[in-house]
Amino acid sequence: MRDLYAHGLEQPSAYMGHLVVFDIRERRNWKERILREEHTHDGKRISVWGK
Predict the structure, then answer these.
(1) Judging by beta carbons within 10 Å of its beta carbon (0-12, 13-18, 19+), is residue 46 exposed, middle or buried?
(2) Burial (0-12, 13-18, 19+ Cβ within 10 Å), 19
(3) First and final CA of the chain: distance in angstroms?
(4) Distance CA 39, CA 51 (A)
(5) So what's the pLDDT on residue 2?
(6) pLDDT value at position 4?
(7) Dihedrals φ, ψ of 31, to 5°?
(8) Which value, to the nearest 10 degrees, does the dihedral of the CA atoms of residues 15, 51, 37, 11 take?
(9) What is the pLDDT of residue 43?
(10) pLDDT digit of tens for each residue in the chain (51 aa)?
(11) For the residues of 1-51, what is the DSSP string, one character each?
């Protein structure tokens, strides 16, 4: 997932500020899948939402 974040934060930092990640890995319960995090990329705050 961290590699996904590193790649995924580039585009929203340019214009949106939000990244939505859908975790479709098997054997993960909903508590492990649902998340909300704040990251900084190129000096801009990005909200990461996961399901």
Answers:
(1) buried
(2) buried
(3) 13
(4) 17
(5) 64
(6) 65
(7) -65, -35
(8) -20
(9) 86
(10) 566 666 677 766 666 788 888 878 888 888 877 889 898 888 888 888 887
(11) -HHHHHHHTHHHHHHT-EEEE----TT--HHHH-EEEEEEETTEEEEEEE-
CA distances (Å), 1 to each of 15, 24, 31, in order? 22, 11, 16
pLDDT at 19: 82
Q: How many structural domains comprise the chain?
A: 1
Report how far residue 30's alpha carbon sits from residue 50's, in angstroms, rounded to the nearest whole number. Answer: 10
Report how far Cα 45 is from the mean position of its chain's Cα atoms: 12
Quickly tell me which residue has 């974040």 as its tokens: 5
Residue 18 belongs to domain spanning:
2-50
Q: Tokens representing 3? A: 């590699």
